RNA sequence: CGGGAUGUGGCGCAGUUUGGCUAGCGCGCUUGCCUUGGGAGCAAGAGGCCGGGGGUUCAAGUCCCUCCAUCCCGACCA
């Protein structure tokens, strides 16, 4: 491809609408343009990168036995009503009507479609296992699309669905996808981690998220410092390590103490001169069924996802001031478990271990000292309901946990019979018995992976593409387009590298060298091949590695070999 | 959905407070000259329903009402 014919409109200045690096650089370097909020047009550069990512994905899906199909974006409402998600999915589902007033949705995911396909075609255990996938646009009417391609309303996703006879079969399929995902992101040149994750509303099943580590990531990941231990988890899910009971302390008599205006843990610790570890923090939550008091140590934060899973409820929110007053008899800030009635109490295991604790007295401006579980109060449930923090011991090996920010680029999920049951996707086993097909689903955000690669690989000058997904392997820059020797040599290089199978861009624009260098750095070609007066006469080429800035001079005859070597290293 | 901000040539912005006559600047774009190793220089040009609608006024980019769009923070997110 020649730059004079190539559509890659770069911008000198940073567009005002972009905040995150990947968004800024994708716009500036001429990869994308915004069409509507959260909806983008992919220009040739982006399309090239996406093609390479998709190709890697296809190869790895096929290697594990996946078969590519293409399902419709437009999905009939009936199927969604059948699965129950027409009502559950909410406003995030793009809905539309045809001229006959029939309702449709733009697919945010394809469990309904694929399950309905399989239920019609698969009847026997002999047809299982089966893995079907597609790479296609997805639609989610996000409340707030943001960060460019990181969270759009239209995005490209690979989704594979596995169909097995039983849980064992599902586990095999799941591990195949786990392996495939590791290979995919590795091949894309990304630094990532598979982490344990919360399974959300579906509950109970295994799920892993694949996180590209980058400071701009929206998710927090905890992982074991010991590289031999592979524990890594989304903070939402991270379990606290089992703790030994501390030194025994004699139980002291309970005392009520006035603590005027001390509502927060910090205020109470300062007023009473005690460490926050001695405080039981009591938070009231409302679910769709009841009011619940959640107890954690004063220096800890509640993990609402864990609490929600513990309670088995659908909705959970912090109780308002009126509810707190009604249930505890005191304003917000003085709740405690002692004497608390008409309210379920859930405690974190750490709370059990606190001897002579301080809690709210359920009375304005008062706290209780020397409170002890069993003697002074009882709880219905003891369960891990708090956030784990960096530095705490790994639940598997005890080494300290480290924290990192991650961008979720993929998730693999054991669905079980959730969709097969409601949609009636069954097969006959060897005994002629009808059984629900056991399913799994496995997604990769393709456009998000492109953005994540930039978040992880850029500098002040622009993008630094990993070679495997770069739009071109190299750019060839003749310093002066008026120097015939340079132009001819650049042309020869272009022809020979193209013939050797490389993707190369010849920057034949009649621009000054500086302009072409700046654009090359911005767009992020892994290699830059400069043909200038210094070297052209000897038929030599300067090879510059974008990532390291390293420059070497190579004879034209050795260039193909040199390029191959360098690309393999990057 | 709550809070905040912004809409003026392709991009980045000034002008709006205090209404005034022909709407500016930088970059980019076109043509010519010149230049060619890190976004050169000179000259001449093209390009604007000042987000839309309604209103106030002799007069609106500027004031009022309303709608829309976009971005940021939060809440939310199989």
TrEMBL record:
<dbReference type="GO" id="GO:0002161">
    <property type="term" value="F:aminoacyl-tRNA deacylase activity"/>
</dbReference>
<dbReference type="InterPro" id="IPR004154">
    <property type="entry name" value="Anticodon-bd"/>
</dbReference>
<keyword id="KW-0030">Aminoacyl-tRNA synthetase</keyword>
<dbReference type="InterPro" id="IPR007214">
    <property type="entry name" value="YbaK/aa-tRNA-synth-assoc-dom"/>
</dbReference>
<dbReference type="InterPro" id="IPR023717">
    <property type="entry name" value="Pro-tRNA-Synthase_IIa_type1"/>
</dbReference>
<dbReference type="GO" id="GO:0005524">
    <property type="term" value="F:ATP binding"/>
</dbReference>
<comment type="subunit">
    <text>Homodimer.</text>
</comment>
<keyword id="KW-0067">ATP-binding</keyword>
<keyword id="KW-0963">Cytoplasm</keyword>
<keyword id="KW-0547">Nucleotide-binding</keyword>
<dbReference type="InterPro" id="IPR006195">
    <property type="entry name" value="aa-tRNA-synth_II"/>
</dbReference>
<dbReference type="InterPro" id="IPR036754">
    <property type="entry name" value="YbaK/aa-tRNA-synt-asso_dom_sf"/>
</dbReference>
<dbReference type="InterPro" id="IPR036621">
    <property type="entry name" value="Anticodon-bd_dom_sf"/>
</dbReference>
<dbReference type="Pfam" id="PF00587">
    <property type="entry name" value="tRNA-synt_2b"/>
</dbReference>
<dbReference type="InterPro" id="IPR002316">
    <property type="entry name" value="Pro-tRNA-ligase_IIa"/>
</dbReference>
<dbReference type="InterPro" id="IPR004500">
    <property type="entry name" value="Pro-tRNA-synth_IIa_bac-type"/>
</dbReference>
<keyword id="KW-0648">Protein biosynthesis</keyword>
<dbReference type="InterPro" id="IPR002314">
    <property type="entry name" value="aa-tRNA-synt_IIb"/>
</dbReference>
<dbReference type="GO" id="GO:0005829">
    <property type="term" value="C:cytosol"/>
</dbReference>
<dbReference type="Pfam" id="PF03129">
    <property type="entry name" value="HGTP_anticodon"/>
</dbReference>
<dbReference type="Pfam" id="PF04073">
    <property type="entry name" value="tRNA_edit"/>
</dbReference>
<feature type="domain" description="Aminoacyl-transfer RNA synthetases class-II family profile">
    <location>
        <begin position="48"/>
        <end position="466"/>
    </location>
</feature>
<keyword id="KW-0436">Ligase</keyword>
<dbReference type="GO" id="GO:0006433">
    <property type="term" value="P:prolyl-tRNA aminoacylation"/>
</dbReference>
<dbReference type="InterPro" id="IPR044140">
    <property type="entry name" value="ProRS_anticodon_short"/>
</dbReference>
<dbReference type="GO" id="GO:0004827">
    <property type="term" value="F:proline-tRNA ligase activity"/>
</dbReference>
<dbReference type="InterPro" id="IPR033730">
    <property type="entry name" value="ProRS_core_prok"/>
</dbReference>
<dbReference type="InterPro" id="IPR050062">
    <property type="entry name" value="Pro-tRNA_synthetase"/>
</dbReference>
<dbReference type="InterPro" id="IPR045864">
    <property type="entry name" value="aa-tRNA-synth_II/BPL/LPL"/>
</dbReference>
<protein>
    <recommendedName>
        <fullName>Proline--tRNA ligase</fullName>
        <ecNumber>6.1.1.15</ecNumber>
    </recommendedName>
</protein>
């Amino acid at each position: 491809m020649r730059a004079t014919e190539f559509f890659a409109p770069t911008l000198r200045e940073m567009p005002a609408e972009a905040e995150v690096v990947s968004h800024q650089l994708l716009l500036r370097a001429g990869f994308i343009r915004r069409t509507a909020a959260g909806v983008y047009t992919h220009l040739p550069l982006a399309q090239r990168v996406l093609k390479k990512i998709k190709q890697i994905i296809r190869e790895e899906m096929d290697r594990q036995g996946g078969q590519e199909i293409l399902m419709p974006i437009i999905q009939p409402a009936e199927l969604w009503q059948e699965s129950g998600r027409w009502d559950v999915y909410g406003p995030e589902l793009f809905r539309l009507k045809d001229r006959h007033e029939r309702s449709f949705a733009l697919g945010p995911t394809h469990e309904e479609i694929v399950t309905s396909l399989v239920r019609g075609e698969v009847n026997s255990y002999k047809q299982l296992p089966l893995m079907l996938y597609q790479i296609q646009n997805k639609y989610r009417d996000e409340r707030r699309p943001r960060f460019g391609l990181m969270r759009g309303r239209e995005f490209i996703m690979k989704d594979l669905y596995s169909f097995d006879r039983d849980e064992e079969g599902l586990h095999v399929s799941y591990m195949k996808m786990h392996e495939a995902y590791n290979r995919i992101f590795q091949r894309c040149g990304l630094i990532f981690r598979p982490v344990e994750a919360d399974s959300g509303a579906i509950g109970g099943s295994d799920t892993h998220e694949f996180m590209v580590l980058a400071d701009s990531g929206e998710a927090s990941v905890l992982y074991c410092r010991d590289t031999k231990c592979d524990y890594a988890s989304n903070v939402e899910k991270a379990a606290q390590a089992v703790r030994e009971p501390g030194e025994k302390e004699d139980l002291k008599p309970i005392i009520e103490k006035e603590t005027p205006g001390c509502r927060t843990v910090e205020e109470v610790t300062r007023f009473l001169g005690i460490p926050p570890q001695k405080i039981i923090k009591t938070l009231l939550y409302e679910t769709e069924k009841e009011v619940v008091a959640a107890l954690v140590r004063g220096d800890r934060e509640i993990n609402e996802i864990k609490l929600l899973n513990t309670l088995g409820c659908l909705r959970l929110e912090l109780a308002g001031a009126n509810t707190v007053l009604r249930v505890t008899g005191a304003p917000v800030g003085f709740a405690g478990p002692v004497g608390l009635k008409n309210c379920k109490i859930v405690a974190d295991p750490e709370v059990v271990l606190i001897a002579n604790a301080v809690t709210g007295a359920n009375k304005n401006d008062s706290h209780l000292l020397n409170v002890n579980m069993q003697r002074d109060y009882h709880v219905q449930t003891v369960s891990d309901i708090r956030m784990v923090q960096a530095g705490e011991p790994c639940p598997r090996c005890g080494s300290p946990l480290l924290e990192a920010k991650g961008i979720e680029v993929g998730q693999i999920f054991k669905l079980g019979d959730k969709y097969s049951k409601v949609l009636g996707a069954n097969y006959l086993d060897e005994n002629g018995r009808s059984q629900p097909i056991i399913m799994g689903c496995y997604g990769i955000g393709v456009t998000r992976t492109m953005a994540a690669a930039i978040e992880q690989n850029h500098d002040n000058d622009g993008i630094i593409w990993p070679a495997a997904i770069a739009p071109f392997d190299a750019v060839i820059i003749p310093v002066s387009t008026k120097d015939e020797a340079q132009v001819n040599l650049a042309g020869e290089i272009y022809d020979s590298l193209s013939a050797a199978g490389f993707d190369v861009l010849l920057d034949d624009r009649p621009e000054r060298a500086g302009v072409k260098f700046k654009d090359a750095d911005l767009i992020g070609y892994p290699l830059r091949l400069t043909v200038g007066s210094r070297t052209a006469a000897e038929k030599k080429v300067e090879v510059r590695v974008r990532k390291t800035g390293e420059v070497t001079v190579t004879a034209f005859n050795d260039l193909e070999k040199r390029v191959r070597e360098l690309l393999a290293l990057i």
